[in-house]
Amino acid sequence: MILIHGFIMTAGLAFALGGIACALFFRRKAWWLKAHRRAGYGTTGALCLGGLLAMVALSLSGEGHWGTPHALIGSAGIALGLITPALGSLQFRHRRLRPIHHWSGRITGTIMFVNVVLGLVLLEIF
Predict the structure, then answer these.
(1) At how many degrees (to 10) do helices 69-90 and 98-122 cross?
(2) For residue 114, which of 57, 56, 69 has the smallest C-alpha distance?
(3) How far is Cα 110 from Cα 126, in angstroms, rounded to an integer?
(4) Which domain does 27 fall in, by range?
(5) What CATH number is attached to the domain comprising 70?
(6) Whole-model pTM?
(7) What is the tens place of the pLDDT at every residue in 44-63?
(8) Total domain count, the chain
């Protein structure tokens, strides 16, 4: 189950990087905002599902995991993965949220990447 969790969280990272790429490189295309939004929602869904799988797997195994940097950074990544699309939707009504949404997306992607590496280290793969 932990392996499935890893694949889902890595998919969340891929969605996040896709959303960032849409915003950075494809803004002149007519479809960029639709793809950017879908990538954000895909990120949120994958992070929620992956976080739920991690909690279930750890409760079934009886191992303590919440004290590790991977768990703490992962929790922050999930929270930011929920906040960033909300900020993106709200920025159309409140323009001053736009830079917060931009930085939130960048920070979320960075945190997710670091956490995937920490997960690989935890599994002794990397």
Answers:
(1) 160
(2) 69
(3) 18
(4) 2-122
(5) 1.20.120.1770
(6) 0.89
(7) 999 999 999 988 888 887 77
(8) 1
